[in-house]
Amino acid sequence: MTTQTASPLKLDTEGLSLDSVSLWQITRRRLFRRKSSLLGMIILAILIVIALTAQWIAPYDPILSMLDANPPQDIGKRSSPCIHALGCAVDQPQHIMGTDGNIRDEFSRMVYGARLSLLIGISTVTFAIIIGTVLGALGGYFGGWIDNIIMRVMDVLLAFPSLLLAIAIVTVIGPGLINALIAIGIVSIPAYARVVRGSVLSIREMDFVSASRALGGNTYDILFRRILPNALTPLIVQGTLGIASAILDAAALSFLGLGAQPPTPEWGSMLGAERNQVFTAPHLVFYPGLAIMLTVLAFNLLGDGLRDALDPRLAHMS
Amino acid sequence: MATYILRRLLLSIPVLFGILFATFALARLIPGDPCRAMLGEKATKVVCDEFNHRHGLDRPIPIQFGVYVNEIAHGDFGNSFRYSKPITELLMERLPTTLELSISALLISIFIGIPLGVIAAVRHNSWVDVITMMWANVGVSMPVFWLGLMLAYIFALALKDTFFQLPPSGRLSPGIITVPFFETWAMQLSEDSFAFTIFDFVSRMNIPNAILSGNGELLKDAVTHLILPAFALSTIPTALIARMTRSAMLEVLGQDYIRTARAKGLVRRAVIMKHAFRNALLPLATVIGLSLGGLLGGAVLTETVFNLSGVGRILYDGITARDYGIIQGFTVVIAIFFVALNLIVDISYAYLDPRIRLN
After folding, report:
1. Is the pTM of this model over 0.80?
2. What is the mean pLDDT of residues B107-135?
3. How far apart are CA B271 and CA B273, in angstroms?
4. Distance from CA of B206 to the nearest CA of A (A)
């Protein structure tokens, strides 16, 4: 498998020359070659485009009822999807995903929901990564009582099933989207703290760190400029997979009524609001759930792909 | 091994103390007055003072914490304001539902996940492998509450009046009466006896109760009600177990001793099951143990969707009603259960792999 390292041509597993190619270029190449991660990236790209262009794609306002639209529409609550191209009567207003319980266009709400979903995933993980990295780096680098205190607190956080802890935190700080994000962020911190601590523990013993120390580098410089950049790889993988679970948890909290509050077009809360109508208007439950699943799937596929592409056993060939 | 277990037990103590502190703090930090939440907004100050005094809420916080730790140490998890019952009693009533659901989900995920993972690894890169892994990826990305609702729609409405029709919610059909199995056996048990507590707990799980009392109709009804929630809850652990089995098997199948086993002419089945699978079981112990903990979190959603009165549901109701007793009691029980589960996983791992305990 890795016998090619002995070759004078320096080829990677796909037989491509590795001369003057950076790790990131190799990673990108491997990512694009793997069908599942390519699929993840395609779904994600579509979602990002939808999120960025929501105001142009959405035919109606996501919050305004059709009764208040300009011109007002005479359409019922929870009406079934109507697509003119698929034979729906032309005199009927077109709503490709139907309308919801408040006579709002479901498709417009779905489109705006993409924006929120991506924001939720990225913001919570960024929050958790920043705090988790600082805690993990301090614990791993200094060891001793600092490490002990930090890791015991992390153990306590990990002792609760994540969704239950998030529910408990939201109860304390009050329901709402921002509070749900903070709760999920807090619950996610231990995963990053552990990953960074593990990497820092192994890297701090390496020769280049000793060299930096011998050259008189200060602690801050050694930790944040020398050690942490080398601990990035597992953090990126964990972060991508973390976005997936953050979106899933946020949707669950909103479903339970603890996250985004109506009329915010958030997929989890849209699903929760219409859950009792599953037998009469299944489309209002089907589309938001499908969208959550596809978004989470995209990040999971990309995270798995990144893990394989950044695998040190393969990466060392560069 | 004894030293290892002792060390792991000692390491759990600060975590347990942290859990007690966290749950105590969480319940005290919840905004809103528990008295007004329980007795209504119109409760007078006199009534509230009496309520706070009765539940010890007028004492200083450190004393409340001391009392709390002391009570937990004696197995007393406090009282629910809402139900006016001890938490332990509520737990004994609700836990069987959650346990029955979680264990069924775990069994489904083990019986589907492990064979799928083994087949995917043995037929690496074949279409079976590709489909299994795609499905596993979809499985870990599935919102449990959505899958539950969709399954309810498909099996209760779309497949109505067919062989596959299943009930969309509840634990039993209306009109089905359950009699505890020990009563059908005409056992005379004192309500204070330990045997009664255990038997009563078991009899609250419909399937074991139906089997033990030989009630075929109850068994059929309980199973048909459990299929959808258990299947919905099992999706994520099934996918995780399938993925973990596959990667562990792939790693083991590449080892030299597997080649040796093949070279000496062992039949393929023996190589896979006796040589490879046994060693691949190691990482599976962790995943299965931790899945059970994750199932408890998923139970809140599943129980809400399928209207099951289990631990997850009561915890959610307790949160919306600001019932400190329930939030504190149930969270602490679940967290202690989770710590114990981690401990068992670690110990079983050390037992299975001597390298761990020697380190």
Report:
1. yes
2. 91
3. 6
4. 26
Query: What are the two backbone dihedrals, phi and then psi, of residue A82, each rounded to the nearest 5 degrees?
Result: -130, 110
CB contact under 8 A, B301 and A160: no
Where residue A10 falls among pLDDT bands split at 50, 70, 90?
low
Which residue in A160, A284, A286 has the most chain B C-beta atoms within 10 A of its own C-beta, making it the best mutation to test that interface? A160
Contact A156 B300 (CB under 8 A): no
Domain membership of residue A120 (yes or no) is yes
- Report chain A residues whose CB lies below 8 A from the CB of B315: 164, 167
CATH number of the domain within which A250 lies: 1.10.3720.10
The answer as to whether B276 is a domain residue is: yes
Task: Write out pLDDT tens, residues A292-305.
Answer: 999 999 999 998 88
- Whether B143 is covered by a domain: the verdict is yes
B266-323 pLDDT, tens digit each:
888 888 888 888 888 777 877 887 787 778 778 888 998 999 989 888 887 887 777 7
B357: pLDDT confidence band, cut at 50, 70 and 90?
Answer: low
Q: How many domains does chain A have?
A: 1
- The model's pLDDT over B8-34, given as tens digits with 9 standing for 90+, comes to 888 888 888 888 888 888 777 776 677
Residue A310 lies in a domain: yes
* Domain annotation covers residue A43: yes
- What does the alpha-carbon distance between residue B347 and residue B358 come to, in Å, rounded to a whole number? 12
Domain of B242: which CATH number? 1.10.3720.10
What residues in A contact B313, CB-CB < 8 Å? none
Asked, for residue B10, whether it belongs to a domain, the answer is no
First and final CA of chain B: distance in angstroms? 11
Q: Do A152 and B296 touch (CB under 8 A)?
A: no
The runs of H, that is alpha helices, within chain A are: 23-33, 35-52, 54-57, 106-142, 144-158, 162-173, 177-203, 207-214, 219-221, 232-255, 267-273, 283-309, 312-315
Name chain B contacts of A273, Cβ cutoff 8 Å: none
Distance from CA of B273 to the nearest CA of A (A): 26
Domain enclosing residue A283, as ranges: 33-62+113-315
Burial of A78 (0-12, 13-18, 19+ CB in 10 A): middle
Query: Can you read off the two tokens belonging to residue B331?
Result: 């969270």
Does residue A154 lie within any of the structural domains?
Answer: yes
Inform me whether the pLDDT recorded for A13 exceeds 70.
no
B-chain CB neighbours of A307 within 8 Å are none
pLDDT at position B328 is 78
Query: Helix count (H) and strand count (E) of chain B?
Result: 17, 2
Range of the domain at B93: 87-179+215-358
pLDDT of residue A31: 83
> Contacts of residue A155 in chain B, CB cutoff 8 Å?
14-15, 18
Task: Classify residue B206: in a domain, yes or no.
Answer: no
Across the interface, do A162 and B316 touch by the CB < 8 Å criterion?
Answer: no
Mean pLDDT score, A256-263? 88
Q: Is A83 left (phi over 0), alpha (psi -120 to 50) or beta?
A: beta
